Amino acid sequence: MTADASPAPALDRIRVGSAPDSWGVWFPDDDQQVPWQRFLDEVTQAGYQWIELGPYGYLPTDPARLTEETGRRGLTVSAGTIFTSLHRGPEVWDATWEHVSQVAELTRAMNAKHLVVIPSFWRDDKTAELIEPPTLTAEQWRHLSTGMERLGREVRERFGLDIVVHPHADTHIDTEENVARFLDATDSDLVSLCLDTGHYAYCGGDSVKLIETYGERIGYLHLKQVDPEILADVVKNEVPFGPAVQRGVMCEPPNGVPELGPVLTAAQNLDVDLFAIVEQDMYPCPPDQPFPIAERTRRFLRSCGA
Predict the structure, then answer these.
(1) What PANTHER family does its record include (predicted)?
(2) pLDDT tens, 197-210?
(3) Which domains does the chain have, with CATH numbers?
(4) 36 with 62: CB under 8 angstroms?
(5) Is 300 exposed, middle or buried (0-12, 13-18, 19+ CB in 10 A)?
């Protein structure tokens, strides 16, 4: 074997999985999405052992049934996902906690340890209508940081789970500047980050730099790439995230940015166990499209050592 053909070093601290998102699933129930049974069958066939719950209600919410369905396919749940608008202040706490409690209960029952927290969008991802200003006031930043700390504390105390906050396009936690501001304003013991490499690149961020700068805050990874040519047009024309996805802005690795090899190596160098869950936003998509992409993506990640 020549030096050029040597295998990539093993990334033994990285646990690779996939999510319903990679099968075009954004909603609990939608005629344009594949049935949950097909997702579970195909994610297994594609070579993944870890999955996320996806939108609450897409997979069975009865723990016994979900345990049986995942167990017989050799799948284990890594996290649940919740949506929040904590920047709006204490008045949204009760409604937020009702949603969080549902998802956290199922997540704990599946022996997962993480809740991925996605901030609310400031514009409608389908119509592009502004829901609220894209920039937070100082008071809203305080609500956001203190609310996330409270969420992290109460989720840990009541459910034994850790929250990982997901910077996301068209939310207030998006760019390098806003991610740094959020991290600097929150307690590292209570609030960690789910670094989504695609969303961070979509918003102009450098994932390797973030890992190297805020390594102790990285608690979870989502792996995806963006097509730089489509992204340039999206940014130029201020296209909202949903229509941008329909244009194919999130593309199949290794065809986009950032390069995932260096990201995974930087994550491995943190010397902590991390989930790296593949998410290629494709809503809506033809039902036969996701599986071959997922299979090729798993093969590519193995070539990176993961």
Answers:
(1) HYDROXYPYRUVATE ISOMERASE, INOSOSE DEHYDRATASE
(2) 999 999 999 999 99
(3) 3-303 (3.20.20.150)
(4) no
(5) middle
Q: Using H for helix, E for strand and C for coil, what is the string for the chain?
A: CCHHHCCCCCCCCEEEEECHHHHCCCCCCCCCCCCHHHHHHHHHHCCCCEEECCCCCCCCCCHHHHHHHHHCCCCEEEEEEEEECHHHCHHHHHHHHHHHHHHHHHHHHCCCCEEEEEECECECCCCCCECCCCCCCHHHHHHHHHHHHHHHHHHHHHHCCEEEECCCCCECCCCHHHHHHHHHHCCCCCCEEEEEHHHHHHCCCCHHHHHHHCHHHEEEEEECEECHHHHHHHHHCCCCHHHHHHCCCEECCCCCECCHHHHHHHHHCCCCCEEEEECCCCCCCCCCCHHHHHHHHHHHHHHCCC
Q: Give the residue-averaged pLDDT of 163-179.
A: 97
Beta strand 114-119 with 50-52 is: unpaired
User: Please, are residues 15 and 50 in contact by the beta-carbon 8 Å criterion?
Assistant: yes
Residue 1 pLDDT > 60? no
* 128: confidence class by pLDDT, cuts 50, 70, 90: confident
| Tokens 């943190």, located at residue | 270
Task: Give 232's strand partners.
Answer: none
Q: Residue 250 phi/psi, 5° resolution?
A: -95, 115
Which residues, other chains included, contact 145 with Cβ-Cβ below 8 Å and sequence gap of 6+? 182, 185, 186
Q: Residue 204, Cβ neighbours under 10 Å: how many?
A: 12
pLDDT at residue 129, rounded to an integer: 86
What are the distances in angstroms from CA 264 to CA 99, 199, 207, 212, 216?
32, 16, 10, 12, 15
